[in-house]
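User: Here's a structure from my thesis project, written as structure tokens. My advisor, Dr. K., wants to see whether a designed sequence matches the one we expressed. Can you design one independently, without my sequence as a hint?
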């Protein structure tokens, strides 16, 4: 057995299945959808990591129930990268929303007309 084969067995399953471009595209799309979901639902940058890890944990559980324990190194790497990218994008979107000015409606400014003489 060559070293090249030994290295590639971590990326190719026993059935000959390998992570392809469609899987990679699905994970990238999932990162953006998760980040927008965090921005819309969570709305707090401090909670993005918790929610992202929870989402990926449930993805891991469903994967174990559906196809068994994932043994591919590429699956683990892709899931880890997806978790990190989703967290950073979600925190970026939430932080930008948190830093926006709060509109104060009905507050008088110094330039407004005062009724007092």
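Assistant: Designed independently from the structure alone:
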């Amino acid at each position: 057995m060559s070293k090249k084969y030994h290295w590639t067995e971590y990326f190719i399953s026993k059935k000959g299945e390998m992570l392809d471009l469609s899987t990679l595209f699905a994970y990238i799309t999932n990162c953006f959808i998760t980040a927008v979901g965090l921005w819309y639902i969570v709305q707090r940058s401090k909670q993005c990591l918790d929610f992202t890890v929870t989402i990926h944990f449930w993805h891991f559980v469903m994967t174990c129930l559906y196809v068994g324990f994932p043994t591919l190194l590429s699956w683990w790497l892709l899931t880890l990268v997806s978790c990190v990218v989703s967290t950073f994008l979600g925190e970026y979107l939430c932080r930008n929303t948190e830093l926006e000015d709060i509109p104060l409606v009905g507050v008088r400014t110094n330039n407004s007309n005062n009724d007092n003489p």
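When you compare it with your expressed construct, this may help: The longest helix spans residues 73-98.
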